[in-house]
Amino acid sequence: MTVQTRPGQPVIRTARFDLRPLRGSDVGLIAHYSGDFRVASMTRSIPHPLPPGAAEAFVGRALSDDRVEDVWAMDATRHGGPELMGLIALERMDRDQSELGYWVGPAFWNTGFAQEAVRALVMANPLGQTAMFASVFQDNAASARVLTQCGFAYLGDAEAYSVARGAKVDTWTYTRKLD
To answer: What is the CATH number of domain 2-126?
Structure first.
């Protein structure tokens, strides 16, 4: 179920949580989880250690009217759970395509939350895209399984720079057609 709260970014309901736009009060939990090397090292853009103000700046960009990426919090408060368990985002690309990215706090790993969030976002297709892309580091087989279980098909190998690792890391790239 999708509920509109702000132009272009709906709340997307799943069986166990809501995907909702970020809000200022998310800064502390975003800093807590993304400041964990286990999370940061599986992303391209999160530095480690997380510098002061980085979470505030991230939330500010996500709330900006001229943002190029829509970010949702995985929020289970409707079901008596945590306010933020992870994030999932769609970055706009050309030709009605977007790039999917997500992370889940370590306390919520192996719970199926990532798969539930990806599946819900794909089904809602809130940007009205024709395709989504995603890439994962090759040493993150769990995230690769999430994507394939949500209908993403392997596209190829590449590499990307990880700020937290300070190095290039081999990646697998996936795509999901939404036509």
So the answer is: 3.40.630.30
For residues 91 and 55, the answer to whether their CB atoms sit within 8 Å is no
Q: Where are the domains of the chain?
A: 2-126
- The kind and range of the H/E element at 177 are strand 167-177
pLDDT along the chain (179 residues), means of 10: 58 98 97 98 98 97 94 98 98 96 98 98 96 98 98 98 98 95
Q: Which of 71, 86, 76 is nearest to 13 (CA)?
A: 76
How far out from the chain centre does Cα 41 lie?
Answer: 14
Residue 117 in 3-state DSSP?
helix
- Are the C-beta atoms of residues 124 and 155 closer than 8 Å to each other? no
Note the helical H segments in the chain.
27-34, 37-40, 54-63, 113-124, 141-149
Please report which helix (H) or strand (E) contains residue 10, including its range.
Answer: strand 9-13
Is the CB of residue 70 less than 8 Å from the CB of residue 89? yes
| Nearest-angstrom CA–CA distance, 94 and 89 | 16
Contact between residue 46 and residue 164 where contact means Cβ atoms under 8 Å apart: yes
As given in the structure block, the two tokens for residue 53 are: 């103000």
> What pairs with residue 158 in β-bridges?
171
Asked whether the CA dihedral 19, 144, 177, 70 is positive or negative, the reply is positive
The pair phi, psi for residue 138, each rounded to 5°, is -65, -15
